[in-house]
Amino acid sequence: QVQLVESGGGLVQAGGSLRLSCAASGRTLSNYAMGWFRQTPGNARECVAAISRRGGVTYYTDSVKGRFAISRDNAKNTVYLQMNSLNPEDTAIYYCAARYAPYSDNYYYTEEDFASWGQGTQVTVSS
């Protein structure tokens, strides 16, 4: 099973930017579709962005379209989430997730689709 470690979270003012990274180990990342989820207290995890294993197709939830960008570098076994124009509603713990999909060029965006998860990184946006 692939191991995932997120980094890049922190405290930022509204309107600012952060770039999250998800480093994978133990498996070849190009066999995995990836997703970024976020969770706030008392709420279920929400997929904010997802990407197919080779990066050809992406998904964004409506609230982040035009502000967030997911990308991947399979040679570096790393997935990124560039977050711009952040607002306080983006405050959450952000998780990276992986789904083994060696024969698929689709993205996946429900929590049940993913078997491997990172530990999460906190993003706090102050007003």
What's this entry about, in short?
The chain is mostly beta strands and 127 residues long. 0% of the residues lie in helices and 50% in strands.
Would you mind describing this structure in some detail?
Helix content is 0%, strand content 50%. With 127 residues, it is an all-beta fold. Strands 2, 4, 5, 6, 9, 10 and 11 form a 7-stranded mixed beta sheet that branches. It has a 4-stranded antiparallel beta sheet with strand order 1-3-8-7, with no helix packed on it. β4 and β5 form a beta hairpin. The radius of gyration is 13 Å and the shape is globular.
Number of helices: 0
Helix content: under 10%
Q: How many β-strand stretches?
A: 11
What structural category characterises the helix and strand content? mainly beta
Biggest sheet overview: 7 strands, mixed
Mean pLDDT over the residues: 97
What value does the Rg take, in angstroms? 13 Å
The succession of helices and strands, N to C, reads EEEEEEEEEEE
How far apart are the first and last residues' alpha carbons, in Å? 39 Å
Oligomer class: single chain
Overall shape: it is globular
Indicate the proportion of strand residues: over 45%
Taking pLDDT < 50 over at least 5 consecutive residues as the criterion, the unreliable ranges are none
